[in-house]
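Schema walk-through. Below, the input block comes first and the output block second. Nothing else is stored per chain. Lengths vary across the set, and this one has 147 residues.
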Amino acid sequence: MDRLCILQAVVTAHGSLTGFLIFWRMQMNNQTQNHLISRDERRAFEAAWRVYVAAGKADAPAFILQAILRGRDPKRGFTPVTNAVKLANGQFAWQGYTAALSQLRGLLGNYVHTIWPDLMGQGVGPNRYESLVKELAVELDQLKREA
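--- output ---
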């Protein structure tokens, strides 16, 4: 498919190029909103995250935590189950995602401390760590309800 065909399909789906641009801008704004950590905290977290991933410790709950702290959609890295046999036998579409959410919620403080051990050492102390864990717990509960 060439670029012109893709552009025509996009314009047709959204009614106009302006409609698509408004939709795209809203999507981009929604993907990068972050109200949990400051810009400096985000930079420190991203540095700690790179070390954590390089050590080979990252698992599904850690990726959900990383997405939340970066203001991204945590469901984006998961694929729903589509096999009709598996669905008929009791699995549900987002079972992997909800299982990872539950695991992260159960060990939230441990994940935050393991991935970002310097959080308490940045002069912000245990109060910032505790408040961040509480804010993350609220966010995870909301995601669990939406899943």
